[in-house]
Amino acid sequence: MNKIPASELPLQAGGQIYHLGVHPDEIADHIIVVGDPGRVEAVSKNFDTVDFKHTNRELVTHTGTLRGKRITALSTGMGTDNIDIVLNELDALANIDLKTMTVKPEHRTLNIIRIGTCGALQPEIKVNSFIAAAYGFGFDGLLHFYEYGNLSDEKLVDAFVEQTGWNERLPYPYCVPANTELLNRIAFDMVQGVTASAPGFFGPQGRQVRAQLKYPHLNEKIEQFNYQGKKITNLEMETSALYGLGKLFGHNTLTVCVAIANRVSKDFSKDYKPYVTKLIETVLERIF
Question: pLDDT of 233-259, one tens digit each?
């Protein structure tokens, strides 16, 4: 077996994975990921037990039990760059022997569900609606640093590039589907569509405050995109990397979000927190 060099997969002095700061037995097969570290407690307070807690930077991990099964709540922080760290380390915890630094002979599959917030891009989607990402569409370029084979729906990507006149200076998009079983079980009654992940909150999502936008009409083109009935329903900052790396590593992934804004109508939720609470409760009811 090829041994993974310490520089490629660093560990803490106690043997914990470097950024998450946990041992392999401290994560469950069912993992809820959230961006906000403060939202981990909002998830884990619904567990029957919380047996493990750890914090490192913006990465907070709580593992316990729910209805007799182990479950983890974990914060990723914001952005696809953080997802790159978290997904690689979760997969290493599941599928790398950290003592010998070799790949385990049997693959362990994780079910990773992101609960987040987003901005809706279709005028009919009401603020505070629940949106499930049937596809994660990446404007971030992260997956292109990996050999990902045929994971991306290139016909959908090509149609998007053509319809929007996507500028060649921007990262080339990619598009990865959700896990069908998780999508059908957890999000059967939610709005479903293509969720786009941007590499930032302001300019990359078409928000102009003081700095002039290079592509001021890009959101309009994204809103109008349609490929075989598939439309981009919402914008956020993590799903494309979650889906891309999840598929690459052989894990099941799904994102569900509360639409706290509608970018077309310019509406913003007056109080979205009760809806996030309801979404957390809904996912936990359906997760097993």
Answer: 999 999 999 999 999 999 999 999 999
